[in-house]
Amino acid sequence: MLYLLIIIFYLLFTWVSHRDIRWGIYLTLLFLPSYLIRFQILGMPATLLEGMIWLLFIVWLLKLRQEKGLTLNPVKWVKNILNPQSLILKEQNPIPRFFRLPMILFLAAATISAFVSPQLQAALGIWKAYFVEALMFFIIFIYNIRTSAQVKQVIRILGVLTIVIGLFAIYQKLTGDLIPHPYWAAEATRRVTTFFGYPNANALLIAPVLMLTIGNLLTDKKFKLIVINLLVLILGILTILWAGSTGALLGIAAGLICFLLFCKKTRIITIAVLAIVLIVSFTQLPAADYLKQTAGSLVYTDLPLVPSDVQIRYQQWKETLTMLKDTPIFGAGLNGYQTLMIPYHQFWHIEIFLYPHNFFLNFWSETGLLGLISIIWILVSFFIISFKFSVFNLKSIKNLKLKTENYNQSFTYQILTITTSCAMITLLVHGLVDVPYFKNDLAILFWIIIGIIIILYNERRRARVVESDGPENR
Questions:
Q1: Which of 133, 202, 129, 130 is nearest to 161 (CA)?
Q2: Does residue 56 form part of some domain?
Q3: Same domain, 80 and 103
Q4: I need a surface site. Which of 72, 352, 411, 453 has the fewest CB within 10 A?
């Protein structure tokens, strides 16, 4: 019966995608948690989400073949590359040049790490889901989502997913039902898990979406859309609070602070408030004592039987760095962290986690030094093009009259660029103590954030070309 339902779903999904590839993208985003639905095809493990990505990719290629003359013959691909008059090559590659090499290195590092791993079969599954399929979706995304209006629609779809998760969280918070762990289900210590089976998975997905939704809230004009955006923010925050994710709250706080710093009208007051908070934190006794106690708890020769989250993370990072000193080039390989960490693990009463729970250590241990360099390169490129059209560099908006279409469009570029940058900051700050990439939905979300910045960058560049070619410049 399950396979029959899956087949029917895939047929409907394929039909919708063929009619409009963007709706296939929207449905894939709406069903991001569907990687939890697992089955086998010819003995090979698969998930509902990856089936959607492959079908979407195939439909997109077939549409390109029909509309743009794309050939599916690899021999002709080489000839097309050598032929400058190729119809396909006339279509501009939407991936900016400075992103292409680090992305190639990123995939190369993951491929090498799959074969370095002590568990090849499991590593190939991770390589396929977190790298190949995530980049496949990224390519479909940036080729078919081309305008800020379509970006806003993407954010709305992610908002609808957040609302669904939030409604499930309300049910779990009130009843305690469908929470797999008895400690999380108990009323006194309740933490919602919704679809994912553990609390932090909700916060990792929702926190960046909330920052993206702020961009929609500030640029939407219709009342019903404003109400939906507010509902997304309220339910998203409640879900994170009920999941008990301190890392996500810190990430959101960092994102909001950066947003206020980016906006000229709020920059000075934000700096003043931050200065006051820091001074109070380091001078007032309760806050100062807490900071000293937290720092002091990291200096120990043995972990207590019930260590704090801070102590656990600190110990993880110490052990991971010790391991990486012995294998700095290749790390542990994909899915190899738990195996390679065994001789470095010191405290039996603390489990060896799947990952080091730090964004940069995660990539270093999983994809080696090349993977770490490539992800840092991608992030640097992301923030460089983010700032090209941020409040610091978007000077042309000052010369536009209020209430004009050009002003409104420039304002939309500006706000969406800033909030997308803040979404990445939220992800990275949360990622200092967690794993915001190595999961099917999170890998796709990461590349969606990268993709949004690229789409806004490309659209703004096209707009500037049109503006420079206006009547006054002819």
A1: 202
A2: yes
A3: no
A4: 72
Q: Are 22 and 113 members of one domain?
A: no
Amino acid at 280: V
- Are 28 and 138 found together in one domain? no
**Residue 431: DSSP 8-state:** H
- Its domain, for residue 376, covers 99-144+313-390+437-474
List, for residues 120-177, the tens digit of each pLDDT value.
Answer: 999 999 999 999 999 999 999 999 999 999 999 999 999 999 999 999 999 999 999 9
pTM for this predicted structure: 0.90
Identify the pLDDT of residue 133. 96
Crossing angle of helices 440-468 and 359-388, in 10° steps, is 20
Q: Is residue 161 part of a domain?
A: no
> Looking at the structure, do residues 6 and 104 belong to the same domain, yes or no?
no
Please check whether residues 350 and 448 belong to one and the same domain.
yes
| Sign of the CA dihedral with 7 first, then 8, 12, and 15 last | positive
Query: 140 and 8, same structural domain?
Result: no
CA angle 34, 35, 36 (to 5 degrees): 80
Residue 293 is predicted with a pLDDT of 57
Euclidean distance between CA atoms 105 and 102, whole angstroms: 5
Check whether 439 has a pLDDT greater than 90.
Answer: yes
Task: Give pLDDT, residue 267.
Answer: 82
Could you give the C-alpha distances from 53 to 24, 126, 136, 287, in angstroms and in order?
A: 9, 15, 8, 49
Same domain, 384 and 462: yes
d(CA 146, CA 27): 17
Express each pLDDT in 246-287 by its tens digit. 999 999 999 999 998 887 778 888 888 888 877 876 676 565
3/77 same-domain check: yes
